[in-house]
Amino acid sequence: MIQLSDHFDYKRLLRYTLPSIIMLIFTSIYGVVDGFFVSNFAGKTPFAAVNFIMPVLMILGCIGFMFGTGGSALIAKTLGEGKTQKANELFTMIVVISAICGILLGAGGFALLRPIAGLMGAEGELLEGSVLYGRIILPALPFYILQYEFQCLFATAGKPKLGLGITVAAGLTNMVLDALFVAVFSWGLTGAAAATALSQFVGGFIPLLYFSRKNTSLLRFVKYKFDGSALLKTCTNGASELMSNISMSIVSMLYNLQLMKYAGADGIAAYGVLMYVSMIFQAVFLGYSVGTAPIIGYHYGAQNHRELKSLLKKSCTIVGIFSVLMFLAGELLGRPLSLLFVGYDAELLEMTIQAFSIFSFSFLFSGLTILGSSFFTALSDGLTSALIAFLRTLVFQIAAVMLLPLIWGLDGIWFSIILAEVMAMLVTVLFLILKRKKYHY
């Protein structure tokens, strides 16, 4: 069994992080299944409705990543300091607070969904479909938040394989129910939303049962006293992931507005295909970063500087190899993946394939930025991590998507993603150089 305190060579590092990588890929795949069934069995307008409202739902759910990544770093550091009971108390408090936040956000989102969709420019069938899909999913929001949170915390608890198993169970639930509700029963958007909500319940509830009982992991639920200082550290440290996810959702809304202007509903549908595939590819980088974060946090807490330096060097090499593989996969699979989603519409298909051929280059640069942001979160440097995430997703992407279409039209929207990722990678490298002496890596 691999321990957080071990020395990690390439083989051990990949073995420890592989369950997290597969877990996040699988989470992304079962999100993609929704899009596949809606697009092929309900049509391109309902498909556009799902993609239109998804950024709003992601903003509400991404608080789980904030608690998961910020809490994971703090708990791992506490374990590294030998304070096991304190780590369990922090773990319990973070899970309880995040569940309460999920209930409050779900209720607020239910009330505000229609006016938000209207402000974003949705009307007619697109508006009604967006609101319908969102309102069916929102009651499961607390479990959606917990599911994302536990994806990070299972690695910290030393049980990444168990986390993977639960994610697979949730994913299979979604896939089977999507096929049943959408393809067999022809329930359209209603069926797709119900399948997603039920799968989120599975992904969030099973870990609650596991940690409520005695188990063989490093963590379990215990009685705790509210610790405002620790909660603040968790939130500020995980703010980069919260900022990254909120920013990506805001940017997605802006992309939808630009695409409505330059290409109409077809543009939103094409962008939806790119985002679905991007979720799967980016999950490789996110999964690796989630898997390494507790290791980095542990050795930082134990002041093991040599291991910290080794982890960063090996991680940059691994992510670099992943980046090249993701780019090649994007170029080779652009046409078959486009056919899978929108093969029924020739004009939309050609638009999506063209977008793919440009968009794939972004994978060459995004991996290092995701790793760098996660690395600083694991070092409890939430400010630097948040700054990288803020510049990457909000500043660079918004500037690029507003300016490049003025020069290249629709293709400028696809090129803007590449430009933003290049700029973010350069900023990440700069921070890694500047902070080297402070953290001794």
- Taken as a percent bin, the fraction of beta residues is under 5%
| Shape estimate | globular
Number of helices: 17
Oligomerization category of the chains in this entry = single chain
**How many discrete domains?**
1
Return Rg in Å: 21 Å
Helix coverage percent: over 70%
How would you state the average pLDDT, rounded? 90
Report, as a whole number of angstroms, the end-to-end distance.
26 Å
Key structural traits:
441 residues, 17 helices, globular
Q: What's the structural blueprint in terms of helices and strands?
A:
Elements lengths: L9 H32 L2 H18 L1 H18 L3 H36 L4 H14 L3 H16 L3 H25 L3 H25 L15 H10 L1 H24 L1 H38 L3 H38 L3 H14 L3 H16 L3 H27 L1 H25 L1 H4 L2
Helix pairs in contact: 1-2, 1-7, 1-8, 1-11, 1-12, 2-4, 2-5, 2-10, 2-11, 3-4, 3-6, 3-9, 3-10, 3-11, 4-5, 4-6, 5-8, 6-7, 6-8, 6-11, 7-8, 10-11, 10-15, 11-12, 11-13, 11-14, 12-13, 12-14, 13-16, 14-15, 14-16, 15-16
